[in-house]
Every structure is written in C-alpha cells, then in structure tokens.
Write a structure and sequence with these properties.
The protein is of the alpha+beta class and 520 residues long. The protein contains eleven helices and 30 strands. Strands 7, 10, 11, 12, 15, 16 and 19 form a seven-stranded mixed sheet that branches. The chain is globular and about 65 Å long. Residues 1-23 and 133-160 have low confidence and may be disordered. The protein binds flavin-adenine dinucleotide (FAD) and NADP nicotinamide-adenine-dinucleotide phosphate. The site of flavin-adenine dinucleotide has 28 residues, from β21 and β23.
C-alpha cells in the first residue's frame, strides 16, 4: 500500500492557521482540531484533575503550576488548567507557556480577545483567584448622580488620561420621550461611532472615540418601547439617543448603573458584545460562496464602519464558537441606487462555505428566520487613511475580497481627490471569482476603476493573468497616476498570501504607512 502522507491540519486555508498581527501559528497534529477539542470536552474526562471541584486559587498556588503538564493560567480572575488544551492550541504550546502560572489576561487580549474562552475552556476551569475584585468606590456617588445630574465620567484605565478627553452625559425627558445626550468633545463622531442596544430594560450605548470606548450602561428605571433613535451633531460631537417611554409618566431618575457605566475604556479592554440577528436571505454567488442578509433587532443601533469586521457566534455541539466576517453591501452598485431595504437594519456578508470546515456548514444550515449572534465591529482600518488619496491599489485573494467591497465603494463615492482604483483579484479558477460581472461592469462604468483577475489553477482557455502574487505582477500593477500621488495599498486573503504579499511589497520599498493589511 502506498504510504500517503496525511493531509496537514489545519488545512492551508483553515482559520486555525490564520494569525493576527503576524503571530506565528503552528501546524496541529492529526486529531487535534477545534472539533476534536470540543469532543474531548464533552467526553466527561476530568480535565482539571480536581474531579469537578472549583477552588479558590492564591497567587502562590497559581505560580506553582507553571509546567507543560501542569499549567494553570488566570484570565480575568478565573484560573484554567490549560495542560490538556496545549496540543489543540493553534498558537502553539510556547504561546500558552509564556503565561504559565501567571495572569495571562493581557496576553490573551493581545491575540485572542474575540475567542470565547469561557466556553472553550469551561471544562478546564480550576476556580477563581482568591483576591476579591474591589467594589467600585464611587458606586454610591454614581448612583446618586444618575438621578438627573450631570455625572463626571470615570476613567478606568490610567492610560486613558492620555487618550481623548473624558466624555460626559446628561438626560432629559418629555411626556413621551427620554433623551440621553452624550457629549464626546470630539469632532469626528458620526452614526458609526455609536453602538446601542436595549435588552430586558437595560440600555447599553458604546461610543467609539479613537481607540477608546465610552460606555453608558444602565438598568432603566421605567420600561421603554423596543425601538429608539440615534442622532449625531457631528461638528460638536454630541450624540442624542431618543428612547420612547412605554407609559407617559415622569421619571425621577434614569435608572441605576450597570457594569462599566459612564467609563472610558481602551477599546482593546472592552469585551465583545453580541446581539441576535435574524437570517433574512441567502443567495448563491459562486459554487461555494453565498450572500447572507441579516437583520438587526429593532432594539439595536449598529453600523459597521468601512474596513471593519464583526464576529459571529454560534453554539456548535454545545460550545460557543466565534469567527470573524466582514460586512459588504448587497452589490457593488448599492451606493448609486435606492436601497431595497433600509441600510441601517440589514447587514450583508459574502461567506464561503467549506464543507469540511467547523463553522460555515453550520451557517449554511441556518434556515431563513433563524438567528446568529453578531458582535460589535472590530478591526484597525482607519478611514482617515483615505484623506486626499489619489491612487488606491487593492490586492485580494478569495474571500479576502470582502473588505475591498466597502473600501472600493467608499473611495469611489467619497474621495474627490481619487484618480485611480485598481483591484488585483487572485483566485483558483474562473468559477471562484466573486461578483466578476459586477466588477467588470463597474470598470466599464467608472473609468477610475480597473480590475485584473489572476488565476492559480486556470483552464487552458483562460487568457488572463495566471500564477501567484509575485514581484513581476506587483511591479506592473502598482503603477501610480503620478510619481508624487498619494496612494494606499490594501491587501487581504489567506494569511500566507497576505504575509507573502507584505514581504514582496516591503522588498519593493513600500513602507508600512503605505500598506494596510486586513487581519483579525
Ligand atoms: P475551518 O474549520 O477553519 O476550515 C477551513 C478550511 O480548513 C477548509 O478548507 C476545511 O476544509 C479545512 N479543514 C478543516 N478541518 C480540516 C481537517 N481536519 N483536515 C484538513 N483540512 C481541514 N470568510 C468569509 O467567507 N467571508 C468573510 O467576510 C470573512 N471575513 C473574515 C474577516 C477576518 C478578519 C478574518 C480573520 C477571517 C474572515 N473570514 C471570512 C474567514 C472566516 O472567519 C472563517 O475562517 C471561514 O469562514 C472558515 O471557517 P470554518 O470554521 O468553516 O472553517
Ligand atoms: P482560496 O480560494 O484558497 O485562495 C485564493 C487565492 O489565493 C488562490 O489563487 C490561492 O492559490 C492563492 N493563495 C493561497 N495561498 C497563497 C500563498 N501563500 N501565496 C500566494 N497565493 C496564495 O482562498 P479562500 O478559501 O477564499 O480564503 C480566503 C482567506 O481570506 C481566508 O483565509 C480568510 O480567513 C481570509 N479573509 C480575511 C479577511 C480579513 O479581514 N482578514 C477577510 C476575509 C477573508 P492556490 O489555492 O492555488 O494555492
């Protein structure tokens, strides 16, 4: 019998290989996939060695468990025995060992903030750290201040003092309405900056101000109707959230504060907040890629800014699994036509279904009317990079095309200085090209836009470019409209593609400031 080498896992395009911020990933052994880990956690095996007991862990005790076969890590006050997980960790044992016997919260936040570790590691939970979290000392003061007086915001992180100046809020009412006013003291605030949710009479509004989040989080004193509206007075950075009272009574106070209410927190330290969105439609785009339309609940205000992604959360065989997806518009021409559905309630996604994947087959099995949890937007793309832009070069491979959809539309509609946008789109075959005819139509309609398709596995009839990202392809592609033009290169695709592209761009003397790579 032929000795066929086993297929390496994760597959070349597996998300389990995708690194964030250049983090190295290690190939996992056969039988060590995320699905295998879920199976192990369901097997009833004692993964902590504590026979189901939960204990209080002192710092001294934590420090003792610092070896590969006895490795405890604390994340946000909870201690996990991660030894059984070592071989399943896509970041490798070394990464886990760097936090062995200590508080790994910072390390975790740097690379895995979006991973639902509580669910993934629940069978590894040893217990809580013995130190009790301090009760916020100004809780009572805060409670008093909520009775209609203008509160001073809390800055939870000392570093935030170097960030934007502290926002504040106030509220007022009429017979029918309660208006919460947030004074951000920033000019570049718009409707994308505010993410608000009303759930079970608690109200949560996160305002993104540069790399910080200002949070209003209140258990309302009275009931309100499900929907509410958000207005922004851009030039003064004022946000007005108008809630509709259920009964026309006068409120003596707005409510009482919930976790992190009225605080300005570095964005990296805020947890991901999810709401359930309903699947409205699912359309085939290519043989394996579909356009999903999700509807936000009426009790949510959320607009995903250009270039950012969200996380989807689904429970798969009892474990919450989270994966990132990038919103697109319903077509490349939606900026130019009246929307069929109101833009601010529907979010579209182009998603490739991997038959052997963990998450996408579950997504594909969702029926119209089913729900999926969707997080607040994440990512480090800044639209300010487009200011005065003259040339925009987009390098996309496979579904790495998704962030380019909004980037492309935004640039063509909102940047008056723009002279040229070029997309080089890498795929295996012609059948894999997402929205090919739309791209060709757009290139025909808008003389500033040009698209080139490059195929790695073309048929003999293919007359276009073939092969992989290379110095020759890039040098020819990256021709600017003027030697002095302000330009930006965006790149997105399988991680090895992006890494290879970044290396080649660096070799061609492009600087980091001239490139944006989309990663998690
Ligand atoms: P995985 O389980 O990760 O598997 C993926 C591949 O690995 C498949 O080819 C599968 O066949 C192979 N594989 C799985 N198990 C094995 C095994 N045991 N042996 C060998 N091979 C195996 N994707 C989109 O489609 N649209 C988007 O808009 C989008 N946006 C993203 C944004 C960001 C910031 C990032 C980082 C990724 C984005 N992705 C997007 C990718 C997405 O997050 C998922 O990685 C993707 O949907 C695959 O998930 P999965 O769980 O179905 O597949
Ligand atoms: P794919 O079809 O497997 O690949 C697309 C093209 O890229 C193919 O021609 C492929 O060639 C080529 N390619 C793959 N690896 C390469 C490498 N190392 N060097 C040069 N070319 C390479 O892609 P996909 O399945 O759609 O996957 C898209 C990827 O994009 C996923 O990994 C996803 O996570 C990522 N993504 C990221 C974001 C983000 O914002 N970060 C957004 C969306 C998608 P061959 O297959 O012939 O080798």
């Amino acid at each position: 019998m032929l000795n066929v080498p086993s297929q390496s896992f994760p597959g070349p395009s597996s998300q389990q290989r995708v690194s964030s911020g250049g983090r190295s990933k290690v190939p996992l052994k056969q039988g060590r996939s995320l699905m295998d880990w879920i199976r192990l956690t369901k097997s009833g095996k004692d993964l902590t060695g504590l026979k189901g007991r939960l204990i209080e862990v002192t710092e001294e005790e934590l420090k003792k468990h610092n070896k590969k076969d006895d490795c405890w890590i604390c994340i946000r006050g909870f201690v996990y025995n991660v030894s059984p997980y070592m071989e399943y960790h896509p970041g490798g044992e070394e990464e886990l060992m760097s936090a062995a016997g200590s508080d790994g919260t910072d390390l975790f936040d740097q690379v895995h903030r979006w991973v639902n570790y509580e669910s993934m590691l629940k069978e590894c939970l040893v217990g809580r750290m013995a130190i009790k979290p301090a009760f916020p000392k100004d809780y009572h003061e805060e409670k008093r201040l909520l009775n209609g007086m203008l509160p001073k915001s809390q800055v939870t992180d000392p570093l935030a003092k170097e960030g934007p100046s502290s926002p504040s809020y106030d509220w007022f009412q009429t017979d029918a309405l309660v208006t919460i006013v947030i004074y951000t003291k920033q000019k570049d605030i718009n409707l994308d900056s505010v993410i608000a949710d009303h759930r079970d009479n608690s109200f949560r509004a996160e305002t993104v101000i540069k790399d910080y989040s200002y949070l209003i989080h209140i258990a309302l004193s009275h009931e309100i109707q499900e929907d509410f509206s958000v207005r922004v007075v851009e030039n003064v950075g004022k946000i007005e959230i108008v809630l509709k009272k259920k009964e026309n009574t006068s409120w003596k106070c707005l409510g009482h504060p919930l976790e992190n209410h009225n605080s300005l927190i570095p964005k990296k330290d805020t947890g991901l907040y999810y709401r359930k969105c309903q699947l409205i439609s699912k359309e085939d785009v290519t043989h394996d890629t579909k356009l999903f339309c999700l509807m936000l609940p009426p009790s949510t205000h959320l607009q995903v800014p250009t270039g950012l992604h969200v996380y989807f959360k689904l429970t798969i065989t009892g474990t919450e699994i989270v994966k990132p997806y990038t919103p697109v518009s319903d077509s490349l021409f939606s900026e130019f036509k009246e929307p069929v559905l109101p833009n601010n309630k529907y979010i579209y996604f182009l998603i490739k279904i991997y038959p052997a994947g963990l998450f996408t087959p579950e997504l594909d099995h969702l029926q119209i009317g089913d729900y999926v949890s969707v997080s607040n937007p994440e990512g480090n793309f800044k639209i300010s990079q487009f200011q005065d832009l003259e040339d925009l070069f987009l390098l996309a491979a496979g579904t790495g095309f998704t962030p380019m959809v909004k980037v492309l539309s935004y640039a063509l509609t909102n940047i008056p200085s723009l002279r040229k946008v070029k997309l080089m789109f890498f795929n295996k075959t012609e059948d894999d090209i997402i929205w090919r005819s739309q791209l060709e139509k757009l290139a025909f309609k808008d003389k500033r836009f040009d698209v080139e398709f490059v195929l790695s596995v073309p048929t003999s009839e293919w007359n276009g470019k073939r092969g992989y990202i290379s110095p020759a392809l890039l040098s020819e592609f990256l021709k600017r409209s003027l030697d002095t033009s302000k330009f930006l290169i965006c790149i997105c695709g399988p991680m090895p593609f992006t890494e290879q592209g970044m290396k080649l761009l660096h070799d061609l003397n492009f600087s980091k400031d001239e490139i944006h790579s989309f990663t998690a």
